[in-house]
Write a structure and sequence with these properties.
Blueprint: H1 3-14, E1 18-19, E2 27-28, H2 31-39, E3 54-63, E4 66-75, E5 78-85
Antiparallel strand pairs: 1-5, 2-3, 3-4, 4-5
Length: 94
């Protein structure tokens, strides 16, 4: 299996925990702030997320002291809102 595919699978497994969109009272980052967070390994790149469907829109936001991606995803004709943890796997835990 290619390294990139393995990384996607690991990230997908770690992001299975989806948070309720109703709990998103989040302050979203600007595009520049989001780039900075990714460059400094505070968040995984959006392209690294393994999402089932087409991402229509995405924002990197602060929620409860952590970074999350707030996504609108088109899947089988339905648009769903998802909130996924943006923290890199190696920075997780404690």
């Amino acid at each position: 299996m290619k390294r990139h595919q393995l990384l996607r699978n690991l990230i997908m497994a770690s992001f299975v925990m989806l948070l309720s969109i109703t709990s998103v009272e989040a302050a979203c980052l600007t595009a520049q702030q989001a780039r900075h967070a990714v460059q400094n390994n505070q968040a995984v790149p959006l392209s690294a997320l393994a999402i089932n469907g087409q991402i229509i829109s995405a924002q990197l936001c602060q929620q409860g002291g952590r970074l999350v991606y707030v996504l609108k995803v088109l899947n089988e004709g339905n648009v769903n809102r998802l909130v996924v943890d943006a923290k890199p796997i190696k920075n997780r835990g404690g």
